Amino acid sequence: MNHIWGLLAHPGREWRNIDSEKESITHLYAHHVLLMALIPVVSAFIGTTQIGWHLGGEVTKVAMPTGAVLGITFYILMLLGVAIMGNVIHWMSDSFASRPSRRRCIVFAGYVATPLFIAGLSLLYPKAWLLVAVGIIALAYSGYLLYVGMPAFLRIPVNEALTISGGTLAIGVLLLELILALTVALWGLGFDDYAVSWSLFR
Fold it and tell me: Which of 91, 103, 123, 198 is the most exposed place for a label (fewest CB within 10 A)?
């Protein structure tokens, strides 16, 4: 919780604090990623099964079993996404003499994703305008964490941080869209029919 507040309140100083801990990937996942990734998953499960999507004036709810399956899938994809983004950052920093290790890059990616995890609270009330507004703010702040953290945590020169931050953020957005697309694709493969069957059974 200290790191979360620090990254939101004073990111420059907090990156240095995180750097001093020499955190392992296992510790990152056990104490941060596994817990933070539950925020959007649990929020989406509650929002879609209890409140429902507001589409064209109509409310569409998801059946509980369907929501559980989609939630687990979404959760696994997010955990993989952090590792993938860490490897992307490691690859993009290949041209620097002080190239950060893969471990540092994955730890970096895990903390950069913090605003996106917190933004998942908006899924408790799944309205498109709210999700878009909160998502834009979260992406913007993640971009800021990238820019501040590159020199403070990854030792990448300040004059190169903006370029790499922009490229990394663009790839991150594409990865996020891919995760959402895969989740929606699962819905299209038949979970929607299962939702109808569950509703009729009840």
Answer: 91
